[in-house]
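User: Is it possible to get a 3D structure for a protein together with its bound compound? The compound here is flavin mononucleotide. I've pasted both below.
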Amino acid sequence: MKVLVVMAHPRRDSLTGQITDAVAAGLAEAGHEAEIADLYGEEFDPLIYPPDEPDWTREDKTYAESTQAEIARLQRNDGVILVFPIWWWSFPAIMKGWIDRVWNKDVAYGANTLNHKRALAIGMSASDAAQYAKRGYDEAMETEIVTGIFDFCGISDGRLEFLHGSTDGGERAVEMIAEAKGLGRSFADGL
Ligand SMILES: Cc1cc2nc3c(=O)[nH]c(=O)nc-3n(C[C@H](O)[C@H](O)[C@H](O)COP(=O)(O)O)c2cc1C
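Assistant: Yes, that's possible. Here is the predicted structure of the complex:
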């Protein structure tokens, strides 16, 4: 299976970057092919300009060339994994903008939806699970990402995993990397 692993972090050698590499290594161990998209490293522009605004009156709009290249990269994979640090209970802006521009009307929703067999979002969080449960951030993010984005765009087999304790360092970082490798290894189980 071919899987697009999308990472959003200003530093490639960050914990987020190491988690991305661990996910890709896990996928490879299970016999899958990972294609890494490093949004910051590629200087992806997250802003929507008129060429990428959805046109609600027609179904055949051609988006900007750079967006078409991103759409092609997304569509040549059968699965997608998003790896990101949680910033204000959501994606970093660059990843939100990647979804805004690439998961566009009549590509990901509307006249066409995505054909990916499975999607996984891995959110790295400084706070612990109890804090998320106390305020309902876990459910809010699940609704936003799994229902509002994956399911809305035709990927019914989607889920969100939290890796808590991302600023604890030391042992916890080592554990998180091992957990991420396991998520990559088991990503396509049962497909
Ligand atoms: C702008 C910003 C907003 C953040 N918001 C949250 C948040 O809402 N919830 C949370 O648990 N951690 C939050 N954090 C902590 C990050 O999730 C944490 O720094 C990151 O997961 C650590 O991984 P890294 O070393 O790869 O950056 C925030 C960090 C930044 C820089």
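Residues 9, 14-16, 85-89, 124-127, 166-167 surround flavin mononucleotide (CB under 6 Å). The two ends are 9 Å apart (CA to CA).
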